[in-house]
Amino acid sequence: MKSNEDQRQETQGAQAAAVSFYEKHKKIYVRDIQGRWTAWRWAFVWLTQILFYGAPWLVWNDRQAILFHLVERKFYLFGLVLWPQDVFYLAVLLIVSAYGLFLFTAIAGRLFCGYACPQTVYSEIFMWVENRIEGDRSARMKLDKGPLTARKLRLKLTKHALWIAISLWTGFTLVAYFTPVEELLAALPFGLSGWEIFWTFFYAGFCYMQAGFLREQVCKYMCPYARFQGVMFDPDTLVITYDPERGEPRGARRKDADLSALGDCVDCGLCVVVCPTGIDIRKGIQYECIGCGACIDACDPVMEKIGKPRGLIRYTTENALEKHFGAAEVVGHIMRPRIILYTIILILICAATAWSLATRVPLMVDVIRDRSTLSREADDGSIENVYNLKFMNTTEKLQRYRVAVDGLEGVKLAEDVPVEVASAENREVTVVVRVPPEAGAKGAHTIYFNIKAEGDEKIAIREKASFLMP
User: Start and end of every 4Fe-4S ferredoxin-type domain (predicted)?
Assistant: First the structure.
């Protein structure tokens, strides 16, 4: 039998061999940095937020220019009015977005993540607020480690109040894309509907939580794009990389150091403290890297100070790094077959969609034959069929439509009157179609309804229907 000492040693060995699959979260304190890529990132922050916050306030034809009107079941896009029947264009939009994502990722990695992703954008905004209130990186670390004082409480409350205000305005703006913003403003604060209140606070809550607290954890653990981006990369994809051949072995430039034995990297760690996801780019390409370029902005000034060329960390490709390509060779390898194929497909889809929208007739008509009365004989002996015509006027002015019918000898409408439909509205009318009894044999016959707008010959459609002879 084993002694107590042997059992104790085995237990300690088993505990030492145990591996935890959960890494305890450590708050990342990102240092402010200035540089070319940071300037580009902030340019996209301004661009995306001006578009997002400003679009609901644009006016077109005395209405909101961009509006997914849920109550009216219409999508207004400046002068274009789309109905549920136009869901095809939503599918096209999703396809274009997917191909655009494939194309940009294959060319330059996670550009969207680093510059235009809402998670990145709002994290930047929230961190900017945090830095202006609590101070720089060292001041924030000191503040968090210190005791709860009146100053600390004041700073924290101010920061969170601003975060909540930004989040609420963001949630309100999102809802303004689905309910006219003027109606929302008029309903504040207690006249909002249940769903408007829910989505405002729901989106605001997620904005506050993800941009204020989770931040890099969304990119590392929640975002699926970070996981499958690897299948869209290849050795000729532009990514942010550290040049180990030039940088290693790294070391500080001390007076007693043998500079001839050291690489260009001084091991200052700035590339780590400015990274919003907290990775060390010197360890190679990692899925957590969002391609923001902050590490480049941190490294280049250090290289200039020690008299070394910029670009120890840079946008380049694996092949360029390994084979020492020049700029012209890098560009030449970017234009590879998959990039050309993605580009051609994207151009064709966009061109076809643009042509479809340009030639789209702003009128839709559904023709439904009245099934309660298959056919009947009129007073004059002719045969009648009854139809319900549902007109959808997708223009933004009142239209008068003329209805005609053909397809059978002697076919005509019992009453030929124009149909008026208000702008961006629909209207259902009942029409009676008559034919002479000798116009056709017993059974179903094909007829056509021809609908034209008065004063605009381009607005004309032809709809097929069936006429039953007894």
Answer: 255-284
